[in-house]
Amino acid sequence: MEDIFVLLGKHRNKPLAEKVAVYNAISAALKDFIGLPHPALGMQLLSVDRVRGNDYNPNRVAPPELELLKLSIRKDGVTMPVVVARDDESGGYVVVDGFHRTSIIQTCDDIKESLGGYIPAVELNKSVEDRITSTVRHNMARGSHQVELSAKLVTALKRNNWSNARIGKELGMDADEVLRLRQITGLAEAFADHEFSKSWE
Fold this sequence. Notes:
The protein is built from nine helices and five strands, in the order ααββαββααβαααα. The chain is of the alpha/beta class. It folds into three domains: about 40 residues, no CATH class; about 100 residues, Conserved hypothetical protein from pyrococcus furiosus pfu- 392566-001, ParB domain, CATH 3.90.1530; about 55 residues, no CATH class. A five-stranded mixed β-sheet has the order 1-5-3-4-2. Helix 7 packs across helix 9 and helix 8 packs across helix 9. The protein is globular. About 0% of the residues have low confidence.
């Protein structure tokens, strides 16, 4: 424990980037030390330039709520880290949950400055399909998820050879709900293997 305090003392007057590197190393070491599998235990500070929004987020925030989120961050600070996954294409990170927080941090100069140009984040190590389902689960757990965009996500998962049963299990939906969301898209490919509910007979 003494070594950590000595390390912190040595870096107290260093540039922010060096402090962030120390913070991230200690946070990762503490997560490893505690040995529990939850991402929140290993929060990292990521440069705003290394994080991009995803292109599938089905959660939309109305302008008044977005302004409220900005006010909340200005008054209370960032109270929840953004959830990210590594983006192999860019070498950076893509947002899994926290799309609007990320956007606000990146575009509001005063908020970005208050965070030193960093975004507090936790990382999920997941495939693209699993990132999509994680985003949906995060949104649905908060009760904010648009039906039309959810339907498009279900269709995207079907294109990746996910069964209705797997989609239902991963997204917390019953078979009828999965079917209804597939129908909303109106795409013929969504019905290529129709699995109709018995309740329709």
